[in-house]
Amino acid sequence: MSFTIAIVGRPNVGKSTLFNRLVGKRVALVDDQPGVTRDRREGLARLGDLDFTVVDTAGLEEAPGESLAGRMRAQTEAAMADADGILFMVDARAGLTPADRAFAAAVRKAGKPVVLVANKSEGRAASAGVYEAFGLGLGEPVGISAEHGEGLSDLYDALREAL
Ligand code: GDP
Ligand code: MG
């Protein structure tokens, strides 16, 4: 099975941390093109016996010259358009923000298989955030800690189920 997963979500939820954990040193390509794809990073991910291409997106922080909503849409939609599935990440500690809800709407609109991930789920402080993520209507959130490497077997199961 060969497929591409785009990690999308607002800045600071932990997308790049998960990307780095999944890819390790096997970053295949740093895409330096101008415009919406300039911050896209692709790598070969391994998770259990799954090998797939994973795409990290920068979110909003590095795309000048456009409205906030426009940048958000462009980044997210470009990455999602080329992907077979979407890993939509929220921050279980921060709680949902308007930006999360805007991303969720774009993710839903893309109409592709989605795995909802509530990152930063290590420890008890995060359980309310995982529960809140249910309310996005994108299925059952998978609680993970990208930084501590927790929940990755649940992520594996969710990816297998979604694709
Ligand atoms: P991105 O903007 O979505 O790519 O987020 P980053 O991967 O750059 O991470 C943003 C911040 O969240 C950094 O300070 C990370 O160290 C932190 N972070 C990422 N994953 C976790 C996690 O599982 N738990 C906690 N507590 N912090 C995390
Ligand atoms: Mg990042």
From TrEMBL:
<feature type="domain" description="EngA-type G">
    <location>
        <begin position="3"/>
        <end position="163"/>
    </location>
</feature>
<feature type="binding site">
    <location>
        <begin position="9"/>
        <end position="16"/>
    </location>
    <ligand>
        <name>GTP 1</name>
    </ligand>
</feature>
<comment type="similarity">
    <text>Belongs to the TRAFAC class TrmE-Era-EngA-EngB-Septin-like GTPase superfamily. EngA (Der) GTPase family.</text>
</comment>
<feature type="binding site">
    <location>
        <begin position="56"/>
        <end position="60"/>
    </location>
    <ligand>
        <name>GTP 1</name>
    </ligand>
</feature>
<comment type="subunit">
    <text>Associates with the 50S ribosomal subunit.</text>
</comment>
<comment type="function">
    <text>GTPase that plays an essential role in the late steps of ribosome biogenesis.</text>
</comment>
<feature type="binding site">
    <location>
        <begin position="119"/>
        <end position="122"/>
    </location>
    <ligand>
        <name>GTP 1</name>
    </ligand>
</feature>
<protein>
    <recommendedName>
        <fullName>GTPase Der</fullName>
    </recommendedName>
</protein>
